[in-house]
Amino acid sequence: MVPRHPPLAGALLLTAAFFISAMQMWDPAYGNTRIFGIGGAFVSGVVLLALGVVLAAICRFLPATRGYFQTTR
Question: What residue segments make up the domains of the chain, in order of their start?
C-alpha cells in the first residue's frame, strides 16, 4: 500500500534537516569565518535565502514573466 501523503513526509524531513543544519552552522566553529559572532555559513545562507525570496517576488510581478506564472486548465 502506498502512503497517501508522501510529499508531506518529504517536506517534514527536509524542514527538520534545514533546522538541524541551521543550528550547526550558527556555531562560529563550524567554518573558518565569523560574522557578528555567528558562523559565516549561517549568515551567508540566510542572506542568500532572503535574496531568493525578494527576487522571486520581483519576478512574480514583472510583466515579462507574467505568462510563466499563469496556470492553464
Answer: 40-73
